[in-house]
Amino acid sequence: MRQFAQEQGRRPSITLPRRAMPAYKAATLQKGLPMSFPHRHLLGIEPLSPPDITAILDRADFYADLNRQADKHNDVLAGMTQINMFFENSTRTQASFEIAGKRLGADVMNMAMQASSIKKGETLIDTALTLNAMHPDLLVVRHPQSGAVDLLAQKVNCAVLNAGDGRHEHPTQALLDALTIRRAKGRLHRLSIAICGDIAHSRVARSNIMLLGKMENRIRLIGPPTLMPSQIGEFGVEVFDDMAEGLKDVDVVMMLRLQKERMDGGFIPSEREYYHRYGLDAEKLAHAKPDAIVMHPGPMNRGVEIDGTLADDINRSVIQDQVEMGVAVRMAAMDLLAQNIRNARAA
Ligand code: ASP
């Protein structure tokens, strides 16, 4: 099996050990019995408690198993309408939300925001109100401005899921990262986790710092001082500008993309120099624990923040697992929010 998967260039599933789900829990999930998730929207990690995070991850474990079956369908969103509004380009997040909604039986619509009325001058709020009048149940929104998704959520009647807003939050990315870590390491607490690179411009880093901190992990941020946020002292993390020092004995190495589209000046001397000092390769990874896993949210700049061969190394990199867990986490989040919608309607 492992050899077959390797020949196919895929990561063998056995390299991602996971705890078996207790039968009672699987049965509970299958029957759709309520697991409490006291939120109307998923706007960020900030408002979530550790039990909220665990509720999403436990349910996502169930969907990760379902997604490996021949029949991946479930009907928890049957009759519901999901609209995906991406005001910023996306490949994996949009595809992942679309697949997740379809597997759960929702009617899914992708709005082509590039060609939309926004281009004709309509405000975000007017667009949201127009869509709201069509009675969607779930709105999945990505927007280049921090806070735009929260604002929109205040104007509509349906559940809103933040698929990334500016530098603010990307909650489903942090949740899928957490699920990947939990399945690879067997736990999501007391781990030493390094988040490396362009922290200042990264909503992925922000959501991950909050989630991993809430779950009581030790977080190290590594990168050039020019790419560290100014209020870094408030995060309760350790900061390093040297990879060898920062990676020492960590369990997880999370690399970030150099977000050039959010930079307006000379944050780094050159990509070559950046790769030399901060790009992850086998030599730098040798400072981490021998079983440390390598992560990247994608899209990757190979040869800038990570060596391409290491990114493809199925013994160290869990990058493809992150994509797989992304669908499961989005199914779980939409399932829990839909249950709240149903409960509110029944009340
Ligand atoms: N895909 C992630 C995001 O939307 C990370 C990245 O773009 O670098 O934030």
From TrEMBL:
Example GO BP: amino acid metabolic process
InterPro entries found in the cross-reference section: Asp/Orn_carbamoyltranf_P-bd, Asp/Orn_carbamoylTrfase, Asp/Orn_carbamoylTrfase_sf, Asp_carbamoyltransf, Asp_carbamoyltransf_Asp/Orn-bd
Domain Aspartate/ornithine carbamoyltransferase carbamoyl-P binding: 40-182
EC number annotated for this UniProt entry: 2.1.3.2
Annotated PROSITE patterns: CARBAMOYLTRANSFERASE
Source species, domain of life: Bacteria
Gene Ontology cellular component list: cytosol
tRNA processing keyword on record: no
Key words, A-Z: Pyrimidine biosynthesis, Transferase
Residues binding carbamoyl phosphate: 92-93, 142, 170, 173, 298-299
Pathway: Pyrimidine metabolism; UMP biosynthesis via de novo pathway; (S)-dihydroorotate from bicarbonate: step 2/3
Catalytic activity: carbamoyl phosphate + L-aspartate = N-carbamoyl-L-aspartate + phosphate + H(+)
Domain annotation Aspartate/ornithine carbamoyltransferase Asp/Orn-binding: ranges: 191-336
GO MF term (any one): amino acid binding
Binding annotation for L-aspartate: 120, 203, 257
Family per record: Belongs to the aspartate/ornithine carbamoyltransferase superfamily. ATCase family.
Described function: Reversibly catalyzes the transfer of the carbamoyl group from carbamoyl phosphate (CP) to the N(epsilon) atom of ornithine (ORN) to produce L-citrulline. Catalyzes the condensation of carbamoyl phosphate and aspartate to form carbamoyl aspartate and inorganic phosphate, the committed step in the de novo pyrimidine nucleotide biosynthesis pathway.
Subunit structure: Heterododecamer (2C3:3R2) of six catalytic PyrB chains organized as two trimers (C3), and six regulatory PyrI chains organized as three dimers (R2).
The protein's name: Aspartate carbamoyltransferase
